Structure formats: structure tokens, C-alpha cells
Amino acid sequence: MIRQLALSVLLATWLPASIAAAADDAPAVKVPRPPHFVSAKDWGSQPDPIPDARRHTPKYVTLHHAGVLWTVDRDPIEFIRNMQAWGKRRPEIEQPPRNTFWPDLPYHFLIAPDGRIFEGRSLDYEPESNTKYELAGHIGVELMGNFEEQRPSPQQVESAVRLVAWLLHQHELKLGAISTHKAVAKGQTSCPGRDFQRYFDDGQFAKWVDAVLAGKAPTIDLGPPLDDGPTELITETKRK
Ligand SMILES: [Zn+2]
User: Fold this and answer.
1) Environment of ion ligand 1 (residues, CB < 5 A)
2) Rounded distance from Cα 2 to ligand 1 centre (Å)
3) How many angstroms separate the CA atoms of 115 and 154, rounded?
4) Residues 203 and 104 both lie in one domain
């Protein structure tokens, strides 16, 4: 016992401060699954089987918006069910090259304006996209709404932050794994919209995620509207 104590004192003295501190802090903060989580089973997901050739190992978390203006009269569950059904009907209703069959939702998670997080495609499989980039490795997280024309709600952004922190923790990924559709499919899309992309460009999103990873509650302050950017929150947009 004494011998062990002496050894640990010796090590603590000898080790560089950063390594000694890391050893003291272990085990790392456990990041819980975020609240307001709705499993695929709970919202009634009905995926078709996905071929084994599309299995992947998650390496990145990539953020999207729906790109469709959200109005307060809409129902998130109906929106998701319609998207899943549309994916399966693409061969019949879409023109090439968009007429590929999507057996399940293109995204792994979808976040409603009220902050609910809906589980989509299984994380075991790569996502889908109408743009060209190497899909394997990407976890797709979509926020409902169109952030070229409306602003995300604080609850929606907080759920995105908590979800991304949980995913980084689960898959042992670093903050650098966080990206957006626009960044990975350069020149092909403005997704996730300028009023959400801004928090990636200024590093704010990563700071919020980092706070959650450190066991703190992030203070989500969306800041003022961008110059020439949308001013209305997604929770305020009425059907015209
Ligand atoms: Zn996208």
C-alpha cells in the first residue's frame, strides 16, 4: 500500500502537468442521451431493409436543414412519415438523377422546432443525399425548417447541440468531426441555411457542444439577426 502510494506520488511529480490532470479527471464526463428523444419505434417508422453494402462506421456529424419553410400549423410526425414514404416512391415520382430508391429516411435524426429529436435511419447505414459527396461515415442530423428564410428556435438549436455532443461521445469523435452539408458538398448547396450555418462559421456551435462534453449546460443565445438575414423565428411563421 505504502509502496503504491510512493509510486503514484513519484509519477505525479514526474508526469507533465497535463497528463497528470487528465489521469485525475478520468473517467471522462458521461454525456447523456438528450431529452425530448423520440425513438423510430415510438413515431411509427416503417423502413424497408437497407443493403449490407451501405453499412458504415460513423466518423462525422453533418448538419442539414429541411430547406422547406416551416409553418406553425405543421405536425413534425406527419412531416417525417411523408418524407419516409416519399423516399420509397422516388423511382416512380422523381426524374433522373433523383429517382433513386431510398429505403428509409435520408437522415439519422430530425429535430422539430419544439426541440423534439426524432430518430430516423439506423446509424449502421450511410445516409442519402441529392448532392455528391462520400456519404459513408456521415451521421446526418436535419433540423426542420428553411434557415434561409426563418431562424431556428433556441430549443431546436439546443437539441442539436446536445444530440451532437452525445453522438461525439458515443462514437469517440472530436469536435472537428462536426460539419455542415454546405461544407462537405462544396458549391452544391446552401444547406443548412445561412441563419444556421453562421454558428459553424463563427465557431459558436462547437463551443456549445464543448460545454456539454465538459458536463455543463450550454447557454444558447442565438444573437441578433444577420444583416439581410431572416428575422422571424421558426416558431412564429404562419401559413400565408
Ligand atoms: Zn442538407
Assistant:
1) 64, 181, 191
2) 59
3) 8
4) yes
